[in-house]
């Protein structure tokens, strides 16, 4: 586990004399504590800041290689996090990764009291070698500002640009503001102007109450971040829902055409994290169930499977059957979305549904809907990603007080075959932003949508990704104008 230091820890932590200088503090990115109760190792990766790593208890083995040799680590084949290699140094597959044999590896072992300096761009893996607990302190310094000064690129070119920046830097720095002997707490109390934005004495990412809510026209409120469940197997959904609830998620987007409703319904009735009234559930009416009677039956079936007497938000999934989007046979679609809406209004007035909405409607259909409603339209779910932003539709929703919910946010719609990579998740611009914020590309995309006043429910059955997605709630994209501009200027259809 690694974490920013707490305020109490800052009272006990004194900076080493060789960095106890105001000029260094102005470049300080972060001070972190590493805490481990067993034997573990990191992936092979490089950091976008210089690292001074001090071993407090236990030990660590470090394997390092130069930025130049890092091009042999196949990092551009690792899609989940920029600056990370898929190679396992403990069991190298030279058939799959033959160029690894060209790398010069440096081995260093840290014992209690030892300090290692790792320049920016050096690839490394750290392995815990004993001590329970195993504790270390890391100081991250932005000396080169590669993220700001190097253009978006793949990892190899990015590191080459960092090397060039290093050659232009002076070899010495004069310290005009010595801070020797001061604790970190004293430094920041007395020199608040030195405190970088990344340094926080509280750690909100571990709180469950960071989830934000937005009011709906129905009078109820909906979280801005949830978990999409559609298409998961019962086993995947069970693991994902319980893990998400444990980490504070209270918002789930289900699909009536799989078993996610039943899985969520069972868990809402039997879990240690929350009660039914704490959870916001989206259910959907499939276009094959359009028509007054079919829609009523569909909602009643969803309520039964969800083990609840009300649903927070019902969406008409699409206005009609569509081979491109929601495929179903014409014979399965005897009714119209207008009839379905009337049925939903009746159920809403009876108390079975709290909020009503639609999905995959265009502006003309939305305008028609608004002329016939007696119950307000609370939400529209439609496609939004970096390449297709639905700007006019979002503006329409904002103008009419309708909450816009994104689907297909991470760009998988653009990768229609297994041979085609995701042009958004794997793009250099998104990778550039992910490097800066020390997170994965998906977290950057989620935060970008939240900044656009969009509710998001990304699907994930990966436990790490579920937590990283949550941490997007506290990410500040405005820390880097360059990273934000890269996202804004991503080639797209308005």
From TrEMBL:
GO terms for molecular function: oxidoreductase activity. CDD domains: AKR_AKR1-5-like. Residues 1-158 form the JmjC domain. InterPro entries: AKR, Aldo/ket_reductase_CS, Cupin_8, JmjC_dom, NAD(P)_OxRdtase_dom_sf, NADP_OxRdtase_dom. It comes from the Eukaryota. It holds the Pfam family Aldo_ket_red. This is Uncharacterized protein LOC106171369 isoform X2. It comes from Lingula anatina. The gene is LOC106171369.
């Amino acid at each position: 586990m690694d974490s920013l230091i707490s305020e109490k820890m800052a009272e006990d932590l004194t900076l080493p004399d060789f960095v106890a200088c105001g000029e260094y503090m102005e470049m300080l990115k972060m001070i972190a504590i590493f805490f481990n109760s067993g034997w573990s190792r990191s992936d092979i990766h490089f950091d976008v800041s210089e690292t001074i790593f001090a071993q407090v208890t236990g030990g660590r083995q470090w394997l390092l290689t130069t930025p130049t040799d890092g091009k042999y680590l196949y990092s551009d084949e690792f899609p989940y996090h920029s600056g990370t290699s898929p190679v396992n140094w403990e069991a190298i597959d030279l058939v799959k990764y033959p160029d690894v044999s060209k790398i010069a590896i440096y081995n260093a072992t840290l014992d209690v009291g030892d300090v290692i300096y790792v320049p920016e761009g050096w690839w490394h893996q750290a392995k815990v070698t004993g001590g329970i607990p195993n504790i270390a302190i890391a100081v991250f310094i932005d000396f080169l500002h590669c993220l700001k000064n190097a253009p978006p690129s793949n990892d190899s070119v990015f590191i080459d640009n960092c090397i060039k920046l290093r050659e232009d830097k002076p070899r010495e720095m004069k310290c005009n503001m010595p801070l020797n002997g001061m604790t970190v707490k004293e430094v920041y109390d007395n020199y608040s102007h030195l405190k970088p934005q990344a340094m926080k004495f509280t750690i909100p990412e571990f709180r469950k109450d960071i989830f934000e809510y937005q009011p709906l026209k129905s009078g109820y409120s909906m979280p801005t971040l949830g978990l999409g469940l559609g298409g998961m197997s019962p086993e995947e959904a069970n693991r994902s829902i319980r893990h998400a609830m444990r980490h504070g998620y209270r918002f789930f987007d289900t699909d009536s055409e799989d078993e996610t409703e039943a899985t969520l319904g069972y868990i809402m009735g039997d879990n240690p994290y929350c009660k039914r009234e704490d959870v916001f559930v989206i259910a959907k009416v499939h276009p094959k169930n359009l028509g007054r009677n079919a829609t009523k039956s569909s909602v009643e079936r969803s309520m039964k499977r969800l083990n609840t007497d009300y649903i927070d938000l019902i969406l008409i999934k699409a206005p009609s059957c569509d081979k491109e989007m929601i495929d179903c046979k014409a014979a399965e679609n005897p009714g119209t979305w207008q009839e379905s809406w009337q049925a939903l209004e009746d159920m809403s007035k009876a108390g079975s549904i709290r909020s009503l909405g639609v999905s995959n409607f265009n502006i003309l259909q939305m305008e028609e809907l608004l002329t016939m409603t007696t119950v307000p339209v609370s939400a529209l779910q439609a496609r939004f990603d970096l390449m297709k932003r639905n700007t006019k539709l979002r503006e329409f929703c904002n103008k009419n007080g309708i909450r816009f919910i994104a689907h297909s946010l991470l760009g998988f719609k653009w990768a229609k075959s297994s041979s085609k990579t995701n042009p958004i998740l794997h793009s250099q611009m998104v990778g550039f932003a992910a490097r800066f914020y020390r997170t994965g590309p998906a977290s950057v995309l989620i935060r970008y949508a939240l900044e656009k006043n969009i509710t998001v429910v990304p699907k994930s059955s990966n436990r790490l990704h579920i937590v990283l997605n949550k941490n997007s709630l506290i990410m500040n994209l405005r820390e880097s104008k360059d990273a934000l501009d890269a996202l804004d200027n991503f080639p797209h259809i308005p």
